[in-house]
Amino acid sequence: MDPLVASELAGSADGIPFRAKENHVHSTWAKTFLSRPELYFQPETLPEIEKIVRIAHKCRRRLTTAGCGHSPSSLTCTSSWLVNLDKYNRILSVDTDTGVVVMQSGIRLYALCEELEKHGLAMPNLGSINQQSIAGAISTGTHGSSLKHGLMSEDVLSLRVTVADGTTKFCSSEDDPELFRASLLSLGALGIITEVTFRAVPEFTLRWKQVIDADVKMFNAWERDLWTQTEFVRVWWYPYTRRAVVWTAEKTDEPLVNPKESYYDNTLGYYVYHNLLYASQFFPRVLPWIEWFVFGMQYGFRNGTTSGAVQPSRKALLMNCLYSQFVNEWAIPLHKGPEALRRLSSWLNQLPPSDPDYVPHNIPFSAEGLYVHAPVEVRVSNTSPSNPKSLRPNSRPYLDPTAEGSPTLYLNATLYRPYYSDPPCRARYYEAFEWLMRDLGGRPHWAKNFETDGAEIESMYGSNLRQWRKVRESVDPDGLFVGAWHRRFVLEDGPLLPLEEAEIKREKSSRAGGVIFEGVVGTAR
């Protein structure tokens, strides 16, 4: 152990704790990736965070920050030092008149929503889950499903970021706007976000309804009112049965009404579905039948089946992720959605030209013998000029994957990993899915399992990526916060930075079915 680290662990002369643990195993929520950091920290104060950064720099150790690890990628993997901010999670101030809330960056979204509710406030928008820390949600481009909202970061007013020299910088759209735009989607590569100032809204209740019907009805409504009928809209599309669940939600003053639960909705359905998915690993041909059966039990076998409820927004906007999963999600222009789904359907179902739903898919990979888990999650986001929030100057993240001139559609191809076993269809399905998304001008969601290489990312973002790199280099020239994931996707080809961590090995985990990452800091290429 480095003498400086040993000395700090023995007792800090400056009175600032140095809380480090050894033998910690870090994993993603889905157990897709695991790593064994040399030291693991859970600081409780800003001076602790600044001290960890300074000592890491002196000891030539890379620093990674992780929250709940919900991203199924290797983004947060490290063999060096790992910082978790779960104990740095307090609300610092709340202005109930303006809705402005200042918080420590480690607070989880579910805890934030509970605290806001005590003050009669709520988050304007949420993604599908609320387990992430606010810093993690910002840093990876988390979004919900609404044409009236963009990324979650659009409601962030300012940030404090502890950078590689151990100092903490303040930034906003007016003060250091370049650092602000880079940090709003930082991928953990600029520093540690330590404080977030966020604009909340008065708490609200949502009346939601979901309808399962033939997907052609969804396609026919696409340009009419599918995405504008209510403030929040999301869709689950099932290619084998050619059906879709359309979920809509609007604000209401009605009294709360809990959703109805059937005997299948709880433990029984969970284990039936899980075991059916596991059986499909050995008999993939049963997947279309599983899709028909499970989602019929869940939503109804008859087209037009409807359900609904009235719930607080912090509950209504969420969904259960159920099992370990790979997730490949891309953003494409909204108007290309029907084309994308019809082409994917033609490919997956191997439709003949005589089929009335056939469209030429042009995907250069065969789907013969391929069976995938469904559905595809379909959501919208809006950072175009039609969203007034997007007009705030200097507030669009450099690495925002959404379309700038029009609303954006997110397509999410999820593949469950029953009992942590990888689905055999993954490689070919995702290869074809990504080919289609690129063909439609898409960009991958940063926190997901995409395989697009750095050269393609460069072509997608151009000058915005170069400006993000420039800002990143200005606050972390030695690569204290840089790892193998960053080098692969967002950094230029070239020699490793002095403190950059390079990947040296991956091996299959016998315990969790995922991949164990090993890296080393400061090696030459």
Please state how the strands of the largest beta sheet are arranged side by side: 17-14-16-15-19-20-18-21
Cα-to-Cα separation, first versus last residue:
25 Å
Radius of gyration: 23 Å
What would you call the shape? Answer: globular
Number of DSSP E strands: 23
Strand fraction: 15-25%
The structure class reads alpha+beta
- What value does the average pLDDT take? 94
Put simply, the count of helices is 14
Helix fraction, binned, reads 25-40%
Unreliable runs: none
Biggest sheet, open or closed, and with what strands and sense?
Answer: 8 strands, antiparallel
Describe the structure.
The model has no long low-confidence stretch (mean pLDDT 94). The strands form five sheets. The chain has an eight-stranded antiparallel β-sheet with strand order 17-14-16-15-19-20-18-21. β22 and β23 form a beta hairpin. The chain has 14 helices and 23 strands. It is of the alpha+beta class and 525 residues long. α5 packs across α13 and α7 runs antiparallel to α8.
Helix and strand layout, with pairings?
Blueprint: H1 3-10, E1 20-21, E2 26-27, E3 33-35, E4 39-41, H2 46-58, E5 63-66, E6 81-84, E7 91-94, E8 100-104, H3 109-118, E9 121-122, H4 134-139, E10 156-162, E11 168-172, H5 177-183, E12 192-199, E13 201-202, E14 205-214, H6 215-226, E15 232-238, E16 243-252, H7 267-280, H8 287-299, E17 305-312, H9 313-316, E18 325-333, H10 337-348, E19 376-381, E20 408-416, H11 426-439, E21 443-444, H12 454-461, H13 463-475, H14 484-489, E22 501-508, E23 515-521
Parallel strand pairs: 3-23, 4-6, 5-6
Antiparallel strand pairs: 1-4, 2-3, 7-8, 8-12, 9-13, 10-11, 10-12, 14-16, 14-17, 15-16, 15-19, 18-20, 18-21, 19-20, 22-23
Helix pairs in contact: 5-13, 7-8
